[in-house]
Design goal:
The chain is of the alpha+beta class and about 500 residues long. The protein contains 21 helices and twelve strands. Helix 8 (about 150-160) runs parallel beside helix 21 and helix 14 packs antiparallel against helix 15 (about 275-305). Bound molecules: protoporphyrin IX containing FE (HEM).
Length: about 500
């Protein structure tokens, strides 16, 4: 599909998705509550035309930036009967991330995940249960639990790259897709799947992922082939995981993986998790982490390999790590890799995998802006926080279009100066990403291995963002030539 059509389609799609999934609230709006503050500016007339023109010529980010420069950090886009209020930057996004669930909710925007993860968890269950299941994720993925995963990830990474030749050319995106699935197999699912039926799991999981497309998002229960394949894969995966859970319980076998932590999790009333819940949660975790990490690792590569200054600094840091710790890598050593950390973080700022986050107002809320305005947003409004522009506002980030990992280092820390919600690629607040530390850990282990063992060059042009995708990835292949070149450990 032509890029321009994709871009226009994507933005119209976001608005119409909001219309379809929120149709239950059609009758609400201002009639249900008295809006006492003025509403945000609505994009109309010449601004709307210029917005659509920018959309056709460039991409959604540039089109939204045009509106931000014109109208400020909050404005409303209207499409048919639906209104979506756009929020950009720290100040305007406070109620989005920190409002009460009874005021600002995730609504049913994630309904499409129900057939993917099953009916016993996530968005299929009531809010109180979902919150408890989120707690299981956070507990299982906290730093103290992650330490033991470093060696497992490292083992996967070393085995994977040992299969590369002495020199050659690869598509980094494809390589990371495979490798991150192997890591998920090892750390999240555990040895039963990783060592025996990984191929089958990989194929079934791909069928579930295929269910992430615009049509399935809008009509998740329509019996079309892609949805049917997704449903069959979900049932088969649930039965595989359930059998593993049963077998571990039968033999009193306890493993050190995420699956085990979910098996051992308990609700507040003491109830243990069921096989169906564990199965849905583990599929959900793999889904949440695999593609997003692949994308961020790929952008990190594209950025590093086109910025010799930062590539040099990251290589130098690895040399220092090796002279200090030889080949050892543990959680603390990873934490010392600050330059690599900021290179990954900066790639995420410039190219967020999830550039837009959605919520719905369940009551009238008030939003204050950096510009000093205060607006009332009626009940039933769709809110869209733009991660992609929050990471680009010039009052927070100096020269935001420039790849400059140093902006996060001590002395500058632009994301902190700008406020807690200035860096939202992992979300924030109640629904913040549970896997942020895990994501950094795996991407750092991968890139520290690559920098220590290969001389790499980007051979394809610097990728554009693929706005036709649901999770925004580098468009096309990210081709890299490699030559083995072991860094000396002294
Ligand atoms: C670079 C990689 C990643 C990015 C960019 C990312 C991004 C995000 C974002 C933006 C959200 C919030 C969504 C919202 O507010 O609506 C989120 C939530 C979540 N992420 Fe990640 N993520 C990444 C990796 C991971 C990994 C590796 C895991 C698990 C292994 C994970 C697990 C989760 C979970 C469980 C949630 C839901 C939290 C909740 O609502 O309770 N993520 N992620």
């Amino acid at each position: 599909m032509d890029m321009t059509i994709c871009v226009v389609w994507l933005v119209l799609a976001i608005i119409s998705i909001a219309a379809v999934v929120s149709k239950s609230s059609k009758r609400s709006n201002a009639s249900d509550s008295v809006v006492t503050r003025p509403p945000p500016p609505v994009v109309t007339g010449i601004d709307l035309l210029k917005f659509l023109h920018a959309l056709c010529r460039k991409d959604p980010e540039a089109a939204m930036m045009y509106l931000y420069n014109k109208l400020g950090s909050i404005f409303t886009l209207s499409f048919l009967w639906k209104r979506v209020t756009i929020l950009i930057g720290h100040e305007a996004s406070i109620p989005f991330f920190h409002g009460l669930e009874s005021d600002v909710s995730q609504g049913n925007f994630n309904e499409f995940t129900v057939p993917m993860f099953g009916k016993e968890n996530g968005y299929a269950v009531e809010y109180a249960t979902r919150i408890e299941q989120s707690r299981f994720f956070y507990d299982s993925l906290k730093a103290s639990q992650l330490r033991s995963h470093v060696d497992l990830i490292r083992q996967e990474v070393e085995e994977y790259f040992a299969k590369w030749g002495d020199e050659g050319e690869v598509d980094l995106k494809q390589e990371f897709t495979k490798l991150l699935m192997l890591i998920a197999g090892r750390c999240l699912l555990g040895s039963e799947v990783r060592d025996t039926i990984f191929g089958e799991f990989y194929t079934l999981f791909a069928d579930i992922e295929e269910g992430v497309n615009l049509f399935s998002y809008m009509f998740p229960y329509m019996p079309v082939p892609v949805n049917n394949r997704r449903d069959r894969a979900q049932m088969k995966l649930t039965s595989i995981v359930s059998e593993i859970v049963r077998s571990r319980k039968r033999c009193n076998r306890v493993e050190d993986d995420m699956l085990q932590r979910l098996i051992d999790s308990r609700y507040k009333d003491g109830r243990p998790t069921t096989e169906g819940e564990v199965s849905g949660m583990i599929i959900g975790l793999i889904f949440a982490g695999k593609h997003t990490s692949t994308i961020t690792a790929s952008w990190t590569g594209a950025c590093l390999l086109t910025h010799p200054k930062f590539l040099g600094a990251a290589v130098e840091e690895q040399k220092q790590m090796m002279s200090k710790y030889k080949d050892n890598i543990d959680y603390n050593i990873l934490s010392e890799m600050e330059i690599l950390h900021s290179c990954i973080k900066e790639a995420g700022r410039m190219y967020p995998a999830a550039p837009v986050l959605l919520r719905k107002t369940l009551k009238e809320i008030s939003v204050q802006t950096r510009e000093g305005g205060e607006y009332g947003i009626p009940k039933g409004t769709t809110l869209a926080h733009l991660v992609m522009l929050t990471g680009k506002v010039p009052h927070t980030y100096k020269d935001p279009e420039v790849y400059d990992p140093d902006r996060f280092r001590v002395g500058r820390e632009e994301d902190k100066i700008g406020g807690k919600l200035s860096y939202t690629i992992f979300g924030a607040g109640r629904h913040a990403c549970a896997g942020e530390s895990f994501a950094f850990m795996q991407i750092k282990i991968i890139w520290s291995h690559l920098l220590r063992n290969f001389d790499l060059k980007l051979t394809s042009p610097f990728p554009k963002q693929d706005w036709s995708k649901f999770i925004i990835e580098p468009k096309g292949k990210v081709m890299v030539s490699y030559k083995r070149c072991r860094m000396p450990a002294n």
